[in-house]
Every structure is written in structure tokens, then in C-alpha cells.
Amino acid sequence: MMFEHLVSFKFKENLDPQKEKELLETLWSFKNKIPGIVDLSAGVNVTEETDNVQGYTLGLRVTFEDQESLRQYGPHPLHQQFVKSLEGIIENVIVIDFPIVK
């Protein structure tokens, strides 16, 4: 059964466009470099529901082959390198993981 991994990022202050671009490029690169990823999308929050943004400006969605692939993603060196790159700039992260039931 495939699993969906949703992440919303809230930064301590507005990121400059270059830093935002770097983070997105790193996230996009996961698709071809981390095993078990079926699909991935990431981007800047442009919702018109501005009352619901609550400072979360970057989003990530990853579809994994199965729950074990999701489990292996967390400790993967590329993921860990990305997590370290957030030190000092991240205020909060929301993560939601769920099985895709059809």
C-alpha cells in the first residue's frame, strides 16, 4: 500500500528567493535519488486562503511505494542533509503521513 507524506514548513523569517529556490531544488532532487519515492512535488504556498496560512510558506508532498520506504526516507543521508540545512531558519514543521486507500 502506498503512503503519502505531507510537510508544511514555517520559517523564522521570510526567506530570500535564492534560499527558497535552493531548498526547493534540494527537495525536488529527492525523487531521483531516494529509493521508494513514486512521486514528489514541492512549492511555495500561494493559497488565497490567507487566514489559514499561519506562516507556513513551503510545502512538500511525497508519495512512497509503501510504509517501509517512508520509514527509510527519514534516516536517508540526503534527507538528513536537508534537515541540517534548516537549522537556524526553521520555526516549525507539520508532518502528516497516511496510507493511500482506494
TrEMBL record:
Gene3D superfamilies: 3.30.70.100. It comes from the Bacteria. This is Dabb family protein. InterPro entries: Dabb (IPR013097), Dimeric_a/b-barrel (IPR011008), HS1/DABB1-like (IPR044662). Homodimer. Residues 3-98 form the Stress-response A/B barrel domain. Coiled coil: none annotated.
